[in-house]
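Progress note, project year one: complex with S-adenosylmethionine.
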Amino acid sequence: MAELGSPQETIQVLQKHDFHFQKKYGQNFLIDPHVLNKIIDAADVGRDDFVLEIGPGIGTMTQYLAERAGRVLAVEIDHNLIPILRETLAEYDNVEVRQGDILKEDIAAIAREYNGGKPIKVVANLPYYITTPIIMGLFESHVPLANVTVMVQKEVAERMRAKPGTKDYGALSLAVQYYAEPYLAANVPPNCFIPRPNVGSAVVRLTCLARPPVEVADERLMFRLIRASFNQRRKTLQNGLANSGELDFSKEEIGQAIQAVGLPPDIRGEKLGLAEFAALADALTTPV
Ligand code: SAM
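Model obtained:
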């Protein structure tokens, strides 16, 4: 069995199986042991852990995970990679490979089946074309999660960590920070992958919070307000929310709610933190 993680071994496996990269699946395989170790260290994987890996590729990171975790389930969409994974992971009896689309898997059911419903760890070098749906899908479907350690586009990592009033701050920052505490574990240049992506990458660990940092009566309304205010970033909060097709409040109702939570009438949405969006949602739920 090949020990993966170097460019030579990866190329050998790819040639042996006559594998052709599929751009539509965001296939950029890791070829740097230093980065692989950093990901596994950041995920803090131990023998008691069940790990879900999204998109194992040829199984490089899966081998590293299998060495440290109790059990690993790796879900890969590309049928052509399944026979390769059977071979590269043959020696690990704590790894299972499943062909499937992660966006269609019931991950809460996976946590129940493989980990007795206890919090699971998710590790992935994500396909960048579906980073946000994967991460938000994990959070919003209330999968029991300990942490999620992912390679993402550098710019996405910055957005996840951004604070109010900065250029990267937006709906993704608020959504991620409602569920988790983000930590930047590493910046990763394009030459650590084959083929090289044309963007910089970063490893982020999202440590899931036991409970959200703010309380809000209507969570869905809060996220609709967040989305609406960032969809119209250049407008004031009041105009952005009043013009949004997603919401059904008059300009006056919004103005009153903004005033009730003690914000200036001409404030922009990008200045608000989670606490202010929660207060605004509450004010609109029980108008004064
Ligand atoms: N983990 C490998 C590595 O680090 O070398 C491969 C990472 S590559 C960036 C992303 C992987 O996710 C590819 O193997 C791709 O086929 C797979 N993938 C893409 N879309 C997927 C989906 N919807 N569900 C499951 N896997 C997917």
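The chain has a mean pLDDT of 95.
Residues 232 and 240 are 5 Å apart (CA to CA).
No further modelling is planned for this target in the current period.
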